[in-house]
Known about the structure:
By secondary structure, this protein is mainly alpha-helical. The protein contains 8 helices and no strands. The protein has one domain (about 5-240). Helix 1 (about 15-50) packs across helix 8 (about 210-240), helix 5 crosses helix 8 and helix 7 runs antiparallel to helix 8 (about 210-240). The longest helix is centred in the first third of the chain and has 37 residues, at about 15-50.
Amino acid sequence: MAEYQTIGARGVSGARSAQIDEGLRAHMNKVYALMSGALLMTFALAYLVASSPALQQVLLVSPVVWVVIFGPLAFVMIASFAFHKLSVVALNGLFWAYAALTGVSLATIFIMFDMMQVITGLAYTAVAFLGLSLTGYLTKRNLGPVHQVAVMMTWGLVAFALISMLFGGMGGNTFWWMNVAILGLFAVLTATSTQEIKNTYLEARTHGGPEADLFLEKAAIIGALQLYISFIAMFRSIMYLFMGGDD
């Protein structure tokens, strides 16, 4: 990926550089706006389901719960592996469907904890997320290798969690350490994903052809999804680790 500070050295004029800088701000604003909208919908749905025993019976007890559990994982894999084949409309549909299913699954948080604990957990998560994302955006260091390692470790955790779920669940200590690992990994991914989103834009604008606009429309959705996943994962772990809930 191209680094922003190398654009001038590659012969991009001052006017062109300013245009890229303005476009980058607009691109990042779009990413954060998509992520924020998805979070609002997610928490609204979580509250709605937690407030309705009838919805809980349908969505969290019946066989539909397996769609709630595995649906988001399926959506992420489809979006990742079929990125170039999917249209902007299809990617948007997957993104909002993912946020909706996550909202249903997050209802368990609203059931387990009182509203003040949820608000406190959200505040902690928001402060941590903003600091980590800003660090990833501003740092001059290449976080790409760290990002790759964190992604591989995250998939390893997903595999471990699925195996544990299928074979009887996790004990208290394992659950606690799992959440520590999740919190640490997604803290790292928040910073590295932000840098990746930024560098993807700069690379496309500096070296991309006529199809760059379409590519960046899709990239904004995927970037919002990456940051959304990190926020939700950090929020869940903060709630389980620090808000006094039972396993």
